[in-house]
Specification:
The chain is an alpha+beta fold. It is built from 5 helices and 5 strands. A hairpin with a 3-residue loop joins strand 2 and strand 3.
């Protein structure tokens, strides 16, 4: 019954009748209400100043743990497949080396131009021009443009292009331009060919 009486007095308490200078003589209900308010303030302040910051720290630590766990899983997977990666790297190096062998060296470029000239004449074409133009330095290789001007017929052009495509060195053909020749019987063709060589470390891009 004492609890019910206390609750009843709290409900009947008028805030306007409270005199904070005489807390000691307050009714029991008023003193209980004041204690409840003080306790709520202490709990709220303690949570805000102590527990709240630590909760944020805990949340940050939990996120960091997830990030580290993800990194660990990735590293663990890489470690488990290290031998496979090494085999793939060896295969890539071998393939890359084979491709480099197909790129002409500086000393081989004149011979490459002579081979193109021979392919043209062997296909029955009249060679007007086979000339190396200015180099284009890229990030990993140097591009060597070659301008080719020939005269002949469609079949001869086809044989010539097939011959260049079958060369052991890498040569690509671009920008075909075919027009009627001067005498009307033959056709003239201009091709921009490109070959490549490996870029030395000292060369600037």
């Amino acid at each position: 019954m004492a609890l019910e009486d206390t609750l009843k007095k709290l409900n009947e308490l008028d805030i306007n009748d409270i005199d904070f200078s005489r807390v000691g003589v307050w009714p029991l209900a008023g003193r209980i209400a004041l204690l409840i308010v003080i306790a709520a303030v202490l709990v709220g302040g303690g949570y805000y100043f102590l527990i709240g910051d630590r909760y944020q720290t805990l949340e940050f630590a939990a996120n960091k743990e997830k990030e580290l766990f993800t990194t660990f899983e990735k590293k663990s997977f890489e470690a488990a497949n290290l031998d496979a990666y090494r085999e793939q790297l060896a295969e890539m190096e071998e393939t890359f080396g084979a491709l480099l062998k197909q790129l002409p060296k500086d000393t081989e470029v004149p011979g490459l131009l002579e081979d193109i000239d021979e392919f043209g004449r062997g296909s029955g074409l009249t060679i007007q021009k086979v000339a190396l133009e200015n180099e284009q330095v890229g990030e990993f290789y140097v591009e060597l443009p070659i301008r080719i001007e020939v005269e002949g017929g469609y079949h001869e052009f086809g044989a010539f292009v097939s011959g260049i495509a079958g060369m052991p060195r890498i040569v690509t053909l671009h920008d075909f331009d075919i027009n009627s020749g001067k005498n009307g019987a033959l056709l003239s063709m201009v091709i921009n060919a490109k070959t490549y060589r490996y870029k030395d470390q000292g060369e600037e891009g």
